[in-house]
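Many groups now describe folds with learned vocabularies. In that spirit, our science desk offers one protein's residues alongside their backbone shape tokens.
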Amino acid sequence: MRGTSRASLQVVENRFAPVIRAAGSQARTVGEELFALVDALDSSGSLRRTLADPSLAGEPKSALVARLLDGADSRTVEIAQALVASRWSADADLTEATERLAFVALLTSAEADGTLVQVEEELFAVTRALAGQREVRRALQDDTYPAQARGSLAEQLLGGQGTPVTRAVVRRAAAAPRGRRFVTTLQHVGDVVAELRSREVATVVSASPLTAAQTGRLTDLLGRALGRAVQVNVVVQPDVVGGLRVQAGPDVIDATVLSRLADARRQLAG
């Protein structure tokens, strides 16, 4: 998102965060209804362009989105109306902002029932479990498979376990990837969880498991470097040979052996 869109999202999110939090467990309904709006925007370019058009007055757009969400929770309608009344650098940014708030609402419902930490752990466990399952990852992002089949496959990764919110997230990530890989969506949702818990998530890829002491030291170092509390999630990938690759938001620190060898090859190639 560019500057104008990012600012618009921030304004709407700041305005409605208390409303979503006050909804408690009902915030899940708000999230599901916002996802329905995301699907409508993705399926109709003309609708998306109309609702994001800055040259059109806000009232007609608010009336249109209210008709689209007829029967929805009043809080959902108010959020959607605020979104379409805002300015967006590109019409796709309206859809992305709506999806972001849908995930926020869904996760806030988990926060209300005390399962947000469990959701975070379960999403990371799914991501970690997929590390060596290339065929499953391929199936989850194969748009020749029906969306419902991809959603069911994703839910099977939980082995019949998982909170209702975790199951909803993994199904959504597989059924409506919106151009992203399944794991990328789960990582994005993990970042939203971290924001709700006022923490940064750092994903560490290592050739071998880290000890508790090593994880603790790394957590402390990253916390000082980033200036906020950090949740370190470790993914073991033996093929990296050695070293660590750390990603925290947009920042990537790559100190693996393979990375250094690749750098050397590039330098030799001139």
Remarks:
- The chain is about 65% helix and 10% strand.
- The mean pLDDT is 86.
- The longest helix spans residues 91-112.
